[in-house]
Specification:
The chain is of the alpha/beta class. It has helices spanning 21-26, 37-54, 69-80, 94-105, 123-133, 153-162, 182-185, 211-219, 229-236, 247-264, 266-284, 314-326, 336-344, 361-377; strands at residues 10-11, 60-66, 86-91, 109-114, 137-141, 143-144, 149-150, 166-170, 189-193, 204-210, 291-292, 303-307, 329-330, 350-354. The strands form 4 sheets. The protein has a 7-stranded mixed β-sheet with strand order 2-10-9-8-5-3-4, sandwiched between helices. The chain binds pyridoxal-5'-phosphate. The site of pyridoxal-5'-phosphate has 12 residues, from helix 3 and helix 4.
């Protein structure tokens, strides 16, 4: 290969994330025709293994969207919110706001319920909003990547269902690193993508759709084309994508899922992520002046957030990022809009540690040690 100017950094950001050598290598597997019999050799096991990672059975169908998680999220809005209905968008951070924006720009009648950054969904607040707005559909973020909060999906969805609404869940930064709770929560559609806890490059949105959602979608008008769940399912039932897929990524997804399901094991993978969350929490306690940012009891298994002392400003975190680059790492200096808002309010900045996908405790330990030294000397 001719020389490139690219650095081979280890990505500890919140997606895209580190891709292990075996998966890079899988990108060299043969290209194929997406309407040829070779396609099903990849996508049939991919669909079956995705259900194993999601821990769902025959009551759910899998759709693979070209694009990324946002394409699946937008399809949920276009196909599952009718024009005469109200969608309540529950936000605990930037990605909850993002789902809300999708409802707004698609012209859906909407309401928004927001919680303070770092806090999880408060069930009493959710219930009050359900009573006030009487939505038919509610969107929720399972894992809020900007704040490192994992909501209790089962409890939130139970409440949403009690009030007669359908729950659409954004599981983009959790899927592959922790249980989806799709069956226990009764979520109608759960969306995710490849470049986070699945440890792959970006390129597909992935959705799990319940029978209830399929029946509802049939009644909704103007579902678009690539955002039409029914059109997508017509192809998914044949283990195909609606439009031409990225063959390189499909090969990598096949290999990665075989490894997750048959080598590491789904439960072991979830346990590994929980260990990394606990490692970061223990590490924060060794850092004078630093504190966990996310609410206790709701801290994510895939992304941790750290509240800095006042002297470690957003600008200084960018210097830390450059120092970490010198050590071969890509550090995450925090979600930019969140840090701007926090600093404008006179509050300390927050940085993130992405520990998702194929990052292991053995990789995280030296990363945290290096980061500690850099933070202390900054
Ligand atoms: C929680 C969450 N939702 C949605 C998105 C958007 O997903 P994608 O970039 O795969 O379209 C992201 C991306 O970071 C995310 O973290």
């Amino acid at each position: 290969m001719s020389q490139t100017p690219f650095a081979d950094l280890k990505l500890f950001i919140t997606g895209p994330t580190y891709v292990r050598p075996e998966i890079r290598q899988a990108g060299l597997l043969p290209e194929f025709g997406h309407r040829d019999s070779e396609n099903a050799k990849r996508f049939k096991p991919i669909m079956a293994n995705l259900k194993k990672v999601a821990q769902v059975g025959d009551d759910h169908q899998v759709i693979i969207f070209n694009g990324s998680g946002s394409n699946a999220l937008e399809a949920s809005i276009r196909s599952l919110v009718a024009d005469n209905e109200t969608v309540l968008n529950v936000s605990v951070g930037a990605f909850g706001d993002f789902y809300h924006k999708m409802a707004v720009v698609n012209g859906k009648k909407n309401a928004q319920l927001k919680f303070e950054p770092g806090r999880a969904i408060d069930l009493a607040g959710l219930e009050a909003a359900l009573v006030e707005h009487k939505p038919q559909v509610v969107t929720v973020t399972h894992n809020e990547t900007s704040t490192g909060v994992t909501n209790d999906m089962t409890a939130a969805c139970a409440l949403i269902r009690k009030h007669g609404a359908m729950a659409l869940v954004d599981g983009v930064s959790l899927f592959g690193g922790a249980p989806t709770c799709i069956v226990a929560s009764g979520a109608a559609m759960y969306s995710t993508s490849t470049q986070k806890s699945l440890g792959l490059p970006a390129g597909f949105g992935i959705a799990f759709v319940s029978k209830e959602a399929v029946e509802k979608a049939k009644t909704v008008k103007n579902r678009g084309l690539t955002t039409d769940l029914i059109g997508q399912l017509g192809r998914a039932e044949k283990n195909q994508t609606l439009t031409t897929p990225n063959c390189t990524l499909a090969n990598q997804l096949y290999v990665q899922l075989e490894d997750i399901v048959n080598k590491e094991g789904v439960e072991n993978r979830f346990a590994r992520h929980a260990v990394m969350r606990d490692m970061v929490q223990a590490w924060i306690l060794t850092l004078p002046g630093y504190e966990p940012f996310a609410q206790e009891g709701f801290r994510s298994a895939t992304v941790s957030t750290v509240k800095c002392p006042m002297a470690m400003t957003g600008a200084k975190l960018k210097e830390v990022k450059e120092a970490m680059r010198g050590h071969g790492y890509l550090f995450d200096p925090g979600y930019a809009k969140l840090n701007t808002a926090l600093e404008e309010a006179g509050k300390p900045a927050v940085f993130r540690v992405g520990h998702m996908g194929d990052i292991t405790p053995d990789m995280l330990a030296p990363y945290l040690e290096t980061l500690k030294a850099v933070l202390i000397s900054a």
